[in-house]
Design a protein that fits this description.
By secondary structure, this protein is α/β, with parallel strands linked by helices. It has 2 domains: about 190 residues, P-loop containing nucleotide triphosphate hydrolases (Rossmann fold, 3-Layer(aba) Sandwich); about 150 residues, PCRA, domain 4 (Orthogonal Bundle). It contains 13 helices and 10 strands. The protein has a 7-stranded parallel β-sheet, covered by helices on one side. A 3-stranded antiparallel β-sheet has the order 7-9-8. It is globular and about 75 Å long. It starts with 7 loop residues before the first strand and ends with a strand.
Length: about 350
């Protein structure tokens, strides 16, 4: 930073996760309002439970933003259900999608009944879809499968409706409706893939379903991260390797997440090695800042952390809290912040 001018380095402490999310979103909104291009801003957070709320807060402020967490498009239940239906539309023998869809609304996922379906399939050689079709037609009787058959019949109706649509673009519109917030990201991803397939194929609108699904699955599991973008980018520190931005914000800098608490069951030497790996990862994050003082971009690095969050949120993120009481997890700043040295600024209240 010194070689590129003074820069802007801040460490901000927030009382809770909601405050941190709102604070980070407000900082970014202020920067954009003052002329910083959204594509100049990179937000890093090790877990989606921290990064995704920041993403949603920026969307609510109508700031161009893109999340690069693996499967971020499937965070919402509506999106997961619609994607599972799409998989069955392409192939009725997708057992994972079928099991999820016929069990999601049932008590204990209709486990007892589905075990009987699975046992029948092992004995008969039928697929689960074939067995459920036989049950629905009354050609097969298995105890405790009434709820599964009802869910299957509803699913068949949905799939038949989708099959009757004229093209895959219409299927996308039906599964991921325009204006539905919960499926917004997977809809846009689907539209982008259809557009790319249009460019490759002269027969516009004549898409191959299996090819479309394969591309969508790949894009969800391994999102492409371009180095030059027009949106605020949000991702984990791991994914940021090789990227840079004039403004870098690292959120969720709390002990127990960055670094993770070492496994007490592994040898001390291995614990030390893992700690060093996480320290290098933190270094990767803080060195994503790319200053360009000649064009008025000296570089900005902001580290943020919360002093508390809901226990359920902390555990879902894999955070080992310093203390838990009455459903609230008490958090401490990452030890890596303390290791930045005497030149680092003191934390300020956010």
């Amino acid at each position: 930073m010194q070689a590129n001018g003074p820069g802007d380095v801040r460490i901000i402490q927030y009382p809770g996760l909601i405050n941190e999310v709102t604070g980070v979103a407000n900082i970014i909104a202020g920067m954009v309002a003052n002329g910083t291009p959204p594509g100049d801003i990179l937000v890093l957070a090790q877990r989606g439970v921290i990064g995704t709320p920041i993403y949603e807060a920026l969307v609510a402020r109508e700031i161009p933003v893109r999340s690069y967490y693996a499967e971020a498009e499937l965070d919402a239940p509506d999106a997961r259900r619609a994607f599972a239906i799409l998989k069955l539309l392409v192939t009725r023998d997708d057992r994972v999608a079928l099991r999820w869809l016929v069990g999601i609304d049932g008590p204990n996922w209709h486990a007892a009944g589905y075990k009987r379906v699975r046992d029948h399939c092992e004995q008969s050689g039928q697929t689960p879809w074939q067995a459920l079709s036989e049950l629905a037609a009354g050609n097969l009787a298995l105890p405790h499968t009434g709820g599964i058959v009802a869910a299957y019949n509803h699913l068949v109706t949905e799939l038949n409706t989708l099959d009757a649509l004229p093209d895959l673009a219409s299927v996308v519109d039906a599964l991921f409706p325009d204006g539905q917030a919960s499926t917004r990201d997977i809809r846009q991803l689907s539209i982008d893939i259809l557009a790319a397939m249009d460019e490759e194929d002269a027969d516009e609108g004549d898409y191959d379903r299996e090819e479309f699904l394969a591309r969508l699955q790949e894009a969800i599991n391994q999102p492409d991260i371009p180095s030059e973008v027009q949106d605020v980018r949000i991702m984990s520190l791991h994914k940021s390797k090789g990227l840079s931005a004039p403004v870098t914000i690292i959120a969720g800098c709390v002990q127990g997440l960055l670094p993770k608490r070492p496994d007490a069951d592994i040898p001390a030497a291995q614990q030390t090695q893992e700690m060093e790996e996480q320290r290098r990862l933190f270094y990767v994050g803080i060195t994503r800042v790319k200053a360009a003082p000649e064009v008025g971009k000296p570089g900005t690095l902001i580290l943020t952390y919360s002093q508390s969050m809901m226990v359920a949120t902390a555990l879902a993120a894999g955070i080992a809290p310093a203390q838990m009481q009455y459903g609230i997890a008490t958090l401490h700043a990452s030890q890596f912040i303390g290791e930045l040295g005497p030149a680092a600024p003191h934390p300020i209240a956010g």
